[in-house]
Amino acid sequence: GEPRKFDPKFRGPIHNRRCTDVICCVIFIVVILGYIALGVVAWVHGDPRKVIYPTDSYGQFCGQKNTLNKNKTILFYFNILKCASPVVLINLQCPTTQLCVSKCPDRFATYIDVQASYRYRPDQWNYFRQFCKPGFNNPRKSVAQVLRDEDCPSMIIPSRPFLKRCFPDFSTKNGVLTVANQTTFKDGRGKTRNVTDLREAANGINNVLDARSVGMKIFEDYAISWYWILIGLFIAMMLSLLFLVLLRFTAGVLFWIFIFGVIGIIGYGIWHCYWEYDHLKGIPGSDLTVYDIGFQTDFKVYLQLRQTWLAFMIILCGVEVIIILMLIFLRNRIRIAIALLKEGSRAIGYIMSTLFYPIVTFLLIAICISYWAVTAVFLATSGEPVYKVMANQTLCKYANLTCDPETFNTTNVTKLCPGAQCTFAFYGGESLYHRYIFIFQLANAFVFLWLVNFAIALGQCTLAGAFASYYWAYRKPADIPLWPLFSSFGRAIRYHTGSLAFGALILAIVQLIRVILEYLDHKLKGTQNSFTRFLLCCLKCCFWCLEKFLKFINRNAYIMIAIYGKNFCTSAKEAFFLLMRNVVRVAVLDKVTDFLLFLGKILVAGGVGVLAFFFFTQRIPVFAQEVPMLNYYWVPLLTVIIGSYLVAHGFFSVYAMCVDTLFLCFCEDLERNDGSTAKPYFMSASLHRILGKKKLSPKKA
């Protein structure tokens, strides 16, 4: 390409800038306003109580104020045996009448027995009647008609409320499942059933109840040990800071120790393979080839062949030779990478405020997630009640068709299907708004992705601006401007909102396509059309690669925006070609940085984890008295380990951004300047030494 024209007076991030990608900025602001409007509309139409409270067969919430259900907060199922699993119950899709009650039944009773004895045992009738439809008080109606019209349940079972629904009160006695100490019960239709039938109907509820008690214990553990967890995370923060500050002294040592360790381990592997190969000499059957014995499920068979060990040895020798050759040919680039890592550590030492910037990004993303989740819930619950025909007869042709409860009794459905009812099924709707709820949910997800990517982009651009002002300071630290992070943040927001939104938009589109592909893949799991599955798999793979590539391009484009203040496309193009001209350096630096930071995360999380393990298991005598009594010591332990990893990740993401910024500045420095007095290098003395004292032409890689 044509040689780039450089401004000879360039001295770090440009201050007299113009706004970039203004159209995208305007669109972004309009979309945010639209997103707020969508949230308001969803808030007006939606009602999260539809998720929190169960709904009875008449489409009313249990516990809904100003209705008959005001004091009836629990849902009761007429025939729980029709419900196969709790998933059916929680989705409110159980083919039996559902009624709101104030408390669950506490005894076994059948409608047949209660009706037969209602004259001389009126108290039993009055107790049973509260589980019948409101207003039903006609014990003279024939049992067959009562059960057909589902005026009353055929039986009641001792139950307890769970998730605001009545479930059989299971307990185990001597290993046998019982309900109220009984193993059998009458189903009210002339049969005696085993309690295990109920267990299958409410399958998994005991597990959920157990999970609930475990949840309570975990909550107690957190309540007792929260300040020790915070101390653990504070130690992780200190360790992360220490690791970053010490990298300027230890980056090279750590890397070379690891590299020579790998070379040593592979060398030992080669020696071991040779020893096994030599050891098997003369043993009968060891000279057979892999081809002779064919495919064996027991892997140990192959380890008795000399050919296997020979193959291992050749592979390991190949790997060893490749590593040694790479070290020989890339030694200078590895030294540059390590020098940049040390420089990054020094830069962070001068601008410590950057380490706490991830908190801003975290808060912005937390706001986005909260707003998205609330809007999604309100959108999902903004449907009107939809009623469907529920028929006791399996052959009724109207079963599962939508109906209107107010006009249902005047239709001929009840004549054709005696006992059929129009009961609440789920929330939906046919109006224009309800028809487009799926589109609104997609829009909600898309804007959410856009905003999250924007928050990340803003963070990257801000940090890049701060670190670039460090690199382009001729005398460090004297020439570093005051408040570099704050002024960089101001520049990014004031001039480059449009450019950052443009980069975030491209990523959000690709991520939305990936979400849709995942959804389609999930939907097509059942179909065995292998071609469709293969095509989806290929598409998912392609878009995953595209997203990774775009993230890399965007990151470097934001660095160029932070330095030169040009628009997104120009910055992305310049960054891409600059990196392509230094492609080997990019690869080496990337891998060396990734490795050292991964090592740092493992050291921090592992170190704090080991410390926490010894503390919570009372292995540290000094603190043995201080340790809280826990139900499960792994609860705070896992929290500390995962928390430490995330804390380290937050700090190290700043460091990775710092190294990337310094690297781009370094490449720019090489192309702009030649080390003469007229065009001096801005790089540190250590980098200058590695490159040699001689003048460098811009093309030198």
UniProtKB/TrEMBL annotation:
Chief location of this protein within or outside the cell: membrane
Bilayer topology: Multi-pass membrane protein
Ranges that cross the membrane: 21-44, 226-246, 253-271, 309-330, 350-374, 447-474, 495-517, 595-616, 637-657
Catalytic activity: choline(out) + n H(+)(in) = choline(in) + n H(+)(out)
UniProt keyword annotation of Cell wall biogenesis/degradation present: no
Localisation per UniProt entry: Cell membrane
Xref: Pfam families: Choline_transpo (PF04515)
UniProt entry keywords in alphabetical sequence: Antiport, Cell membrane, Glycoprotein, Membrane, Transmembrane, Transmembrane helix, Transport
GO cellular component, one term: plasma membrane
Keyword Repeat: no
Record-stated family: Belongs to the CTL (choline transporter-like) family.
Annotated function: Choline/H+ antiporter. Choline transporter.
Name of the protein: Choline transporter-like protein
Organism: Platysteira castanea
Phylogenetic lineage: Eukaryota, Metazoa, Chordata, Craniata, Vertebrata
